[in-house]
Amino acid sequence: MIWKRFCGCAVRIGLLRVPDDLEVVVWTCCTDWVLVLKCEYAVRGEIVIHAQRLQQQLQTQPGSLPFDEILYCNIGNPQSLGQKPVTFFREVLALCDHPSLLEKEETKSLFSADAISRAKEILAAIPGRATGAYSHSQGIKGLRDAIAAGIASRDGFPANADDIFVTDGASPGVHMMMQLLLRDEKDGILCPIPQYPLYSASIALHGGTLVPYYLDEKTGWGLEISDLKKQLEDARSKGIDVRALVVINPGNPTGQVLAEDNQCDIVRFCKNEGLVLLADEVYQENIYVDDKKFNSFKKIARSIGYGEDDLPLVSFQSVSKGYYGECGKRGGYMEITGFSAPVREQVYKIASVNLCSNITGQILASLVMNPPKVGDESYAAYKAEKDGILQSLARRAKALEDAFNNLEGISCNKAEGAMYLFPQIHLPQKAIEAAKAANKAPDAFYALRLLESTGIVVVPGSGFGQVPGTWHIRCTILPQEEKIPAVITRFKAFHEAFMAEYRD
Question: Can you give the residue ranges of the Aminotransferase class I/classII large domain (predicted)?
Answer without folding.
Answer: 116-487
